[in-house]
Description:
- By secondary structure, the protein is an alpha/beta fold.
- Helices cover 31% and strands 18% of the residues.
- Helix 2 (59-68) runs parallel beside helix 6 (183-194).
- The termini are far apart.
- Residues 35, 37-39, 159-161 line the site of magnesium ion.
Amino acid sequence: MPRKNPSEALRAICYGQDMTEPPAPSARRGAVIFDRDGVLNHEVGFAHRPDQITWIPGALSAVKAVNDAGLFAFVATNQSGVARGLYTEADVVTLHAWMNGQLAEVGAHIDAFVYSPYHPEAPLDAYRRDSDCRKPGPGLIRRLLADWPVDPGRVCLIGDRETDMAAARAAGIEGVLFTGGDLGETVAPVIARLTA
Ligand SMILES: [Mg+2]
């Protein structure tokens, strides 16, 4: 997808899929950045196929609520299974497209998925890197903020691990820990703050 203002330095080290066309920079909006495994879908360890995805209760409607509030909905996910040779980047991309298909059935969507395929001790040479994009690094978040017209004062990352919170801090945005249950109960107050 062509970009008016690509962040080439970040693009070289972070990967992602834009599912919608970014709006004009004048249309700055707040954003909710979801971690994937353990937040949108149950953590099963290196999920890479649709049959391994069980949505967290309330996840689909929570994404729709973010969409309906006029906020961007992003996913930022560590996918070191690529570096470990367990699955490929094509598998990641295909799975994310499938997830957006599931979301579409309730009228919801993720605007962009970004992922880090790296691991510092990867068996695959191409992915053995101590990357800033691997959370707790801020690279994935920074890429989203660089590529999309996000209001930097209205951004929140929702994650289930301390590494997610550390990534949010490193990027200078709010982090909210999801501790289980219905995701909507965690997302609703976030939406209220970001749209206040
Ligand atoms: Mg997680």
